[in-house]
Amino acid sequence: MSYSVAVEFRDTNADGQQEAIISRYNNGYAKNLNPDVVVTAYANPEGVYEQLDGVDDVEGNDGVDENDAFTYSVAAELASKLVGLSSVGGGRLYSFILISAERKAHEEKPAEVTVNFFNTSNTDLSQPDAIVTLKLNDTGSYKVLEPSQGNGKFELDADGDGDSDANDKWILARIVTSFVSMRNFAK
To answer: Is the pTM of this model over 0.90?
Structure first.
Protein backbone atom coordinates (compact mmCIF):
# COMPACT_ATOMS: atom_id res chain seq x y z
CA MET A 1 0.00 0.00 0.00
CA SER A 2 1.32 3.46 -0.78
CA TYR A 3 1.28 6.73 1.13
CA SER A 4 1.30 10.20 -0.45
CA VAL A 5 1.51 13.87 0.46
CA ALA A 6 0.61 16.61 -2.01
CA VAL A 7 1.76 20.22 -1.62
CA GLU A 8 0.22 23.01 -3.64
CA PHE A 9 0.72 26.76 -3.39
CA ARG A 10 -2.24 29.01 -4.18
CA ASP A 11 -3.98 32.08 -2.85
CA THR A 12 -7.02 30.58 -1.11
CA ASN A 13 -8.25 33.71 0.66
CA ALA A 14 -7.55 36.40 -1.98
CA ASP A 15 -5.03 38.26 0.21
CA GLY A 16 -2.33 38.21 -2.46
CA GLN A 17 -0.18 35.65 -0.58
CA GLN A 18 0.09 32.04 -1.57
CA GLU A 19 -0.85 29.55 1.12
CA ALA A 20 0.65 26.06 1.26
CA ILE A 21 -2.08 23.43 0.94
CA ILE A 22 -0.75 20.12 2.30
CA SER A 23 -2.94 17.09 1.59
CA ARG A 24 -2.15 13.70 3.12
CA TYR A 25 -3.37 10.48 1.51
CA ASN A 26 -2.82 7.63 3.98
CA ASN A 27 -3.58 4.99 1.34
CA GLY A 28 -1.89 6.65 -1.62
CA TYR A 29 -3.05 9.26 -4.10
CA ALA A 30 -5.66 8.38 -6.71
CA LYS A 31 -7.66 10.62 -9.02
CA ASN A 32 -10.90 11.86 -7.39
CA LEU A 33 -9.83 10.49 -3.99
CA ASN A 34 -10.37 12.86 -1.09
CA PRO A 35 -7.33 13.34 1.14
CA ASP A 36 -7.37 12.01 4.71
CA VAL A 37 -6.02 15.32 6.04
CA VAL A 38 -5.79 18.82 4.53
CA VAL A 39 -3.69 21.46 6.28
CA THR A 40 -3.48 25.06 5.12
CA ALA A 41 -0.35 26.96 6.12
CA TYR A 42 -0.40 30.78 5.99
CA ALA A 43 2.81 32.76 5.62
CA ASN A 44 3.54 35.92 7.57
CA PRO A 45 4.96 38.96 5.70
CA GLU A 46 8.47 37.49 6.07
CA GLY A 47 7.37 34.27 4.36
CA VAL A 48 7.40 32.09 7.51
CA TYR A 49 4.53 29.62 7.74
CA GLU A 50 3.33 30.09 11.30
CA GLN A 51 -0.48 30.03 11.14
CA LEU A 52 -2.01 26.66 10.31
CA ASP A 53 -5.56 25.35 9.88
CA GLY A 54 -6.55 21.68 9.91
CA VAL A 55 -3.56 20.33 11.84
CA ASP A 56 -4.06 16.76 12.97
CA ASP A 57 -2.18 14.49 15.39
CA VAL A 58 0.59 13.67 12.91
CA GLU A 59 2.78 12.33 15.74
CA GLY A 60 0.15 9.82 16.75
CA ASN A 61 0.34 10.60 20.46
CA ASP A 62 -3.40 11.25 20.95
CA GLY A 63 -3.43 15.00 20.86
CA VAL A 64 -2.76 17.93 18.56
CA ASP A 65 0.05 20.02 19.97
CA GLU A 66 2.80 22.43 18.91
CA ASN A 67 4.94 19.55 17.59
CA ASP A 68 2.20 18.54 15.15
CA ALA A 69 1.89 22.13 13.94
CA PHE A 70 5.68 22.38 13.67
CA THR A 71 5.81 19.27 11.44
CA TYR A 72 3.39 20.85 8.95
CA SER A 73 5.08 24.24 9.21
CA VAL A 74 8.43 22.66 8.35
CA ALA A 75 6.85 20.80 5.42
CA ALA A 76 5.44 24.09 4.07
CA GLU A 77 8.78 25.87 4.56
CA LEU A 78 10.73 23.15 2.77
CA ALA A 79 8.30 22.96 -0.13
CA SER A 80 8.38 26.74 -0.46
CA LYS A 81 12.15 26.51 -0.92
CA LEU A 82 11.39 25.01 -4.31
CA VAL A 83 11.42 28.25 -6.25
CA GLY A 84 9.20 26.75 -8.91
CA LEU A 85 6.43 26.24 -6.38
CA SER A 86 6.61 29.59 -4.68
CA SER A 87 6.05 33.09 -6.00
CA VAL A 88 9.76 33.89 -5.57
CA GLY A 89 11.64 35.10 -8.64
CA GLY A 90 10.15 35.22 -12.10
CA GLY A 91 7.07 33.13 -11.39
CA ARG A 92 6.07 29.58 -10.83
CA LEU A 93 7.19 26.70 -12.97
CA TYR A 94 5.47 24.03 -10.86
CA SER A 95 2.11 24.42 -9.15
CA PHE A 96 1.95 21.04 -7.45
CA ILE A 97 4.21 18.33 -6.07
CA LEU A 98 3.20 14.81 -5.10
CA ILE A 99 5.47 12.81 -2.80
CA SER A 100 4.83 9.06 -2.57
CA ALA A 101 6.31 5.91 -1.09
CA GLU A 102 5.28 2.33 -0.66
CA ARG A 103 3.97 1.88 2.84
CA LYS A 104 5.34 -0.93 4.97
CA ALA A 105 5.67 -1.05 8.74
CA HIS A 106 5.23 2.30 10.48
CA GLU A 107 8.66 1.94 12.09
CA GLU A 108 10.44 1.35 8.79
CA LYS A 109 11.60 4.13 6.48
CA PRO A 110 10.68 3.49 2.85
CA ALA A 111 13.63 2.42 0.70
CA GLU A 112 12.60 4.80 -2.08
CA VAL A 113 10.49 7.94 -2.24
CA THR A 114 9.28 9.53 -5.47
CA VAL A 115 8.64 13.26 -5.95
CA ASN A 116 6.46 14.18 -8.93
CA PHE A 117 6.42 17.78 -10.20
CA PHE A 118 3.55 19.26 -12.22
CA ASN A 119 3.90 22.42 -14.34
CA THR A 120 1.38 25.20 -13.82
CA SER A 121 -0.21 24.33 -17.18
CA ASN A 122 -0.54 20.61 -16.36
CA THR A 123 -3.93 19.56 -15.03
CA ASP A 124 -3.33 15.81 -15.51
CA LEU A 125 -1.94 14.54 -12.21
CA SER A 126 -1.26 11.16 -13.78
CA GLN A 127 1.38 12.73 -16.06
CA PRO A 128 4.09 14.54 -14.04
CA ASP A 129 6.42 16.94 -15.84
CA ALA A 130 9.42 15.89 -13.76
CA ILE A 131 10.08 12.92 -11.48
CA VAL A 132 12.83 12.64 -8.88
CA THR A 133 13.49 9.43 -6.97
CA LEU A 134 15.37 9.42 -3.67
CA LYS A 135 16.82 6.27 -2.13
CA LEU A 136 17.58 5.53 1.50
CA ASN A 137 21.33 5.01 1.91
CA ASP A 138 23.26 2.99 4.48
CA THR A 139 23.48 5.94 6.89
CA GLY A 140 19.68 6.34 6.99
CA SER A 141 19.60 9.48 4.84
CA TYR A 142 17.93 10.02 1.49
CA LYS A 143 19.99 10.59 -1.63
CA VAL A 144 18.75 11.68 -5.06
CA LEU A 145 19.18 8.96 -7.69
CA GLU A 146 20.48 10.06 -11.06
CA PRO A 147 17.66 9.68 -13.60
CA SER A 148 17.68 6.78 -16.01
CA GLN A 149 15.94 8.87 -18.70
CA GLY A 150 17.19 11.73 -20.84
CA ASN A 151 20.88 12.45 -20.52
CA GLY A 152 21.11 10.58 -17.19
CA LYS A 153 21.87 13.75 -15.22
CA PHE A 154 19.93 15.45 -12.45
CA GLU A 155 18.56 18.69 -13.95
CA LEU A 156 16.05 20.09 -11.47
CA ASP A 157 16.82 23.61 -10.25
CA ALA A 158 14.97 23.41 -6.94
CA ASP A 159 16.35 26.65 -5.51
CA GLY A 160 16.12 28.79 -8.65
CA ASP A 161 19.78 29.78 -8.77
CA GLY A 162 20.20 28.75 -12.40
CA ASP A 163 21.87 25.37 -11.94
CA SER A 164 21.23 21.83 -10.73
CA ASP A 165 23.66 21.00 -7.97
CA ALA A 166 24.10 19.60 -4.45
CA ASN A 167 21.93 22.38 -2.96
CA ASP A 168 18.96 21.28 -5.07
CA LYS A 169 19.45 17.67 -4.02
CA TRP A 170 19.70 18.75 -0.36
CA ILE A 171 16.35 20.57 -0.58
CA LEU A 172 14.69 17.46 -2.03
CA ALA A 173 16.27 15.23 0.63
CA ARG A 174 14.95 17.53 3.38
CA ILE A 175 11.45 17.52 1.89
CA VAL A 176 11.48 13.73 1.71
CA THR A 177 12.74 13.44 5.30
CA SER A 178 9.84 15.64 6.45
CA PHE A 179 7.44 13.51 4.41
CA VAL A 180 8.77 10.32 6.00
CA SER A 181 8.30 11.76 9.49
CA MET A 182 4.59 12.24 8.69
CA ARG A 183 4.32 8.83 7.10
CA ASN A 184 5.60 7.04 10.18
CA PHE A 185 2.66 8.26 12.25
CA ALA A 186 -0.19 7.85 9.74
CA LYS A 187 -2.81 5.34 10.80
So the answer is: no
